[in-house]
Design goal:
Helices cover 41% and strands 9% of the residues. By secondary structure, the protein is mainly alpha-helical. Strands 3-4-5 form a 3-stranded antiparallel β-sheet, with no helix packed on it. A two-stranded antiparallel sheet has the order 1-2. A hairpin with a 2-residue loop joins β1 and β2 (66-69).
């Protein structure tokens, strides 16, 4: 029994080492998750860039090299404070579809549509679930609600019908990581109201 304190001490050392190892494993797992989130967001940023989302969803101004995204408005959609431009009915009658000056609005047989706010703000997709996002992109439904109206041109949602889930998740993660821009985009205007 004289060695009992030594055994107790050895057991205590092993228990402490096991706890330390478990803590290190948790820290490593947490770092891997953060790295994975970071990599996912980076992939989403890449996909948003090559898919041209900012072409329609970012307000632009003319700069020295042509149209440039308005600072602080990236992916915020048609600016709510901007007056709607006058439509040229003759052009529409002759089969034209028209884009607004910065591409955030479009007019055609469907009426006038406005690019949505894709930022992390609640006026954008800030309160959306991944499922809503997936429905919007792969089923072309407004606000990602299966029973809602269809997304209007020029939104190319049919191009995304077969988009891989991991790419959809990456785009969603990136958009949810963007700075929030409070901007309530106008509702579409029906053809007979133009």
């Amino acid at each position: 029994m004289k060695n009992y304190p030594i055994y107790a001490f050895a057991l205590l050392v092993l228990l402490f080492a096991a706890c330390q190892s478990a803590e290190e494993s948790k820290d490593t797992a947490k770092a891997e998750v953060e790295l994975s989130d970071s990599a996912l967001i980076k992939r989403g940023e890449y996909l948003v860039g090559i898919m041209g989302c900012q072409d329609c969803h970012s307000p632009k101004q003319l700069g020295p090299k042509g149209p440039e995204v308005v600072p602080g408005r990236h992916l915020s959609g048609y600016p709510a404070d901007r007056p709607v431009g006058k439509v040229t009915p003759e052009a529409l009658k002759n089969g034209w579809m028209l884009l607004g000056g910065d591409g955030t609005s479009a007019v055609g047989p469907w009426g006038m549509s406005f690019a949505a706010n894709l930022t992390s703000d609640t006026t954008g997709i800030g309160s959306w679930s991944f499922e809503q996002f997936k429905i919007a992109l792969t089923q072309g439904k407004s606000k990602g609600i299966a029973t809602a109206r269809p997304l209007l041109p020029p939104m190319p949602w049919p191009n995304y019908v077969n988009m891989a889930d991991e790419d959809l998740r990456a785009v969603f993660a990136y958009l949810k990581s963007t700075p929030p821009v409070n901007n309530i985009v106008p509702m579409p205007i029906a053809p007979d109201k133009l």
